[in-house]
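We now fix the convention by which a protein and its fold are recorded. The integers have meaning only within a learned vocabulary of local backbone shapes. A record is reproduced here so that you can trace the correspondence yourselves:
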Amino acid sequence: MNSLISTSHISSSNYHAFESQTSLTVFRSSPSLWSLRFCGLRQEAVQFFQLKNRLVSGALKKRRHYVSAAASNGSPSKRKFDYDLVIIGAGVGGHGAALHAVEKGLKTAIIEGDVIGGTCVNRGCVPSKALLAVSGRMRELQDEHHMKALGIQVVSGAGYDRQAVADHASNLASKIRNNLTNSMKALGVDILTGFGSIVGPQKVKYGVDNVITAKDIIIATGSVPFVPKGIEVDGKTVVTSDHALKLEFVPDWIAIVGSGYIGLEFSDVYTALGSEVTFIEALDQLMPGFDPEISKLAQRVLINPRKIDYHTGVFASKITPAKDGKPVIIELIDAKTKELKETLEVDAALIATGRAPFTKGLGLENINVETQRGFVPVDERMRVLDAKGNMVPHVYCIGDANGKLMLAHAASAQGISVVEQVTGKDHVLNHLSVPAACFTHPEISMVGLTEPQAKEKAKKEKFKISVAKTSFKANTKALAENEGEGLAKLIYRPDTGEILGVHILGLHAADLIHEASNAMALGTGIQDIKFAVHAHPTLSEVLDELFKSAQVNVDERKPVAV
């Protein structure tokens, strides 16, 4: 979930277990199905019904010739099944896998016990973007200096209608949810309602007593907000991101536990709407999952000028909701000594300490699988591993439930990778090429390794790294928008031109990162990408200047190994 629903755990992993940061993998799916991807892979399905007859007809032809090849998860079987593929969980990951499976000619069913779209669409990426769109406009209208610099006069102060803002978020989620549902129905995916679980090899139960068989099974059950012990969530004054996205009220003072992506994005929303924010972070610095240089700049741009204060190196050991006229009470203890350090009294508290996998009740014991901290163990091809570390035939797990990279678009990419495998084409997703973004104002984005991670890798593998940087202050389009605050940073190998990581803070950073992530996914070196042409004047020239400033000692222009 590349959005508010991104994990900022009180340990060192931030925003959807975001230790390994990453980028986009390019998938070779048909042009028609490119329009079907969602939440990071594609947008709304507008042409589904026009494509339905042609795609379903083609899928049926492919289905008649479907043969499981050696690359499939487990040995081929001559048995007949109700479905070629059954997916448990209809979030973004399950949806992406289902559409790709239909394209490949597989008879596919998807099981959902809650609502189509999962966390991202209903309680994460999608509604959070609606709230952030409002906060961005409010912030701009409230910045008198910025508006005057553009020659704009705001006659009266900007205001907002809380319920209308909340309705905007809810309506957007509903619209995208309907689009997801219609896209699957239009292409012939069977949507089965009820809680799904595995009852045996290649057997899945859903609802009360419905049992179906499947050649292959994908677990895509996602995650739920993680709430540490000692914190009492009442859904009103002490809330998780699930509750906060409903925007039932805007508190005067709110404490946010966790300074990762979820916390940062909500701080952007709340401060724009008039709240004061206090961050509570267990580690010694804010935003510990970011590249340190980006964290430092983000604190100067996103924290210091706003009504935000913070406590670092402390745990919220106990949080009591407001009741009987008393405020929310938060007890802070030292992260190292565990001694009581301070007690805060605030109007509300948001628990943004990450997400936990939703894997209970899946019947994993029926296939001898034991979870690890709740996550389903998988190999690099998303094949589920049993208690002894052996591959479980025909069972895969994607997305937040496996913990490899808890981002919505990563789940979808993993699902597409699995479908490639079960239809005979081996495929391994390069997680280091999957991008991530934080949709604050300005935005933050990244792909690959941070500078400390790159240095550690270089030391271990005995090679040198270099760093190149460029400022948004040198970009014509950014200056035209009066948005020159920003930095782009490139970490690379000067001997091969390999891109190890790119980090951006600035206007539309979330959109700019994909040139770097695509280069990493395709194995394109700096010596080649620096010859790409960018339209002028555009923000894309920030990346153009960044790549051109890199000093690469490579004579021949050739792709680097992925």
In short: Residues 368 and 386 are 5 Å apart (CA to CA). The radius of gyration is 24 Å. The chain is about 30% helix and 20% strand. The longest strand covers residues 210-219.
